[in-house]
Specification:
Elements (H helix, E strand, L loop, with lengths): L24 E7 L5 E6 L4 E7 L9 E5 L10 E6 L9 E15 L5 E3 L2 E6 L16 H16 L4 E8 L1 H19 L1
Length: 188
């Protein structure tokens, strides 16, 4: 009698974009809030890899991760910052709802430029930001600090991150839909 191989779980990068139970966006945390060590998921190794350590005094303002089964202009899954009460560990899957997008251009060291938008979401389990439905519902100082973090983070790498716009969930969802289409085209 031939034994069946156990079915292998999908890579984190290939999970469903939308959580089947909650109907929220699926987010995989790479770097927890307060961390100075930037981690990135490597689907080939199916592991989180240390990308860099931020200088003393600079840390991630909220959990940072990606949305599975999407692709951004940089060829990686869409980036997302998740607002939550407490940080969670790397590799956690966090059902979240998109509240907006910070659109930005990023100039690389070689002078080339590309769009490098940052989606912003609220964890479905979050109590502190439970009433926040749009990026504009956040205090201005919070959004400014998020933008400042990404400006400073990129400056450390010799890149220029320039925020070009702030938009709500409708624009964020359109960005998500584009990322899903790119992923499906690439998977064919």
């Amino acid at each position: 009698m031939k034994r069946k191989r156990p079915r292998r779980a999908p890579k984190l990068s290939d999970l469903a974009t939308i959580d089947g139970e909650s109907k929220c966006v699926t987010v995989v945390v790479e770097t927890p809030k307060g961390a100075r060590t930037k981690l990135a998921y490597d689907p080939e190794r199916e592991a989180f890899v240390v990308k860099k350590v931020l200088p003393e005094g600079l840390s991630f303002p909220f959990d940072f991760g990606f949305i599975p089964s999407t692709l951004g202009d940089d060829g990686d899954p869409l980036d997302v910052l998740i607002l939550m009460d407490e940080p969670v560990v790397t590799g956690s899957v966090v059902p979240s709802r998109l509240i907006g997008i910070i659109e930005a251009t990023q100039q690389e060291k070689d002078g080339s430029a590309e769009e490098n938008d940052r989606l912003v979401a609220v964890s479905e389990a979050c109590l502190l930001f439970a009433e926040v439905k749009r990026l504009a519902d956040l205090p201005e100082s919070v959004v400014t600090q998020i933008e400042h973090f990404f400006v400073t983070y990129n400056k450390e790498e010799g890149k220029v991150f320039k925020p070009t716009g702030r938009h709500g969930p409708k624009r964020a969802t359109a960005n998500l839909d584009t990322g899903r289409r790119k992923y499906r085209r690439q998977a064919k």
